[in-house]
Specification:
The protein is α+β, with helices and mostly antiparallel strands. The protein is 35% helix and 31% strand. It has a single domain, classed as Aminopeptidase. It has an eight-stranded mixed β-sheet, with helices on both faces. Keywords: Acyltransferase, Transferase.
Length: 188
């Protein structure tokens, strides 16, 4: 485990045993930021079950072209980032999720997680670019990604979670943010 900074934040790769923690952080973040884009019935009901299934599968396949990095403050899980290497021929690696627990936001953990994602792309991907999708309504996340050097290049409609259209409210959109060369923003 690597410990950095005065606030004793530590980072490590996730394992299958972290699936429950990751799923709960992911569900809480969706409940907070995806309300209005995802249906209340889904966010107040099946979202935890859905995220548990997704993360159990992803973390069981760890090392299979992706990495999930956990952040801790002391013994408390503070957030995570999940990166899929070489996901898109044009845009590179996909930062599929980056979530920081509400009580640990605005402490540099998100910035450190995205920098660690960039380093993972350099260490394990075949290219130097990465991208992510952020809900159009999540302006706070957009400001964060812009501050981290990301650039919005495209707007697209959101796919429903688990392919279930009833989990969406209306027709929400997402924005693609890109880092064409992570070395330009995160060093090498």
């Amino acid at each position: 485990m690597v410990v950095t900074g005065p606030s004793a934040v530590s980072y490590r790769p996730a394992s299958a045993t972290d699936a429950e923690q990751v799923a709960m952080i992911h569900a809480a973040s969706w409940r907070r930021f995806y309300r209005g884009a995802y249906s209340d019935a889904f966010l107040d009901g099946d979202v935890e079950t859905d995220r548990r299934a997704v993360w159990a599968q992803r973390l069981a396949a760890a090392g299979d072209g992706s990495v999930t990095i956990m952040a801790y403050v002391g013994a408390e899980t503070a957030g995570f980032v999940h990166v899929v290497f070489d996901h898109d021929e044009r845009w590179g690696a996909l930062v599929d999720n980056l979530h920081v627990v509400r009580d640990h936001q605005r402490r540099g953990i998100g910035a450190s997680l995205i920098a660690r994602a960039a380093q993972a792309v350099l260490d394990h991907g075949t290219g130097v670019s990465m991208y992510l999708w952020v809900l159009e309504q999540n302006v706070a996340a957009q400001a964060f990604y812009t501050a981290q050097g990301g650039r919005s290049v495209e707007r697209a409609m959101v796919d429903p979670p688990g392919g279930v259209p009833a989990r969406l409210t209306g027709a929400p959109a997402a924005l693609r943010y890109v880092w064409p060369d992570v070395c330009d923003h995160f060093g090498s």
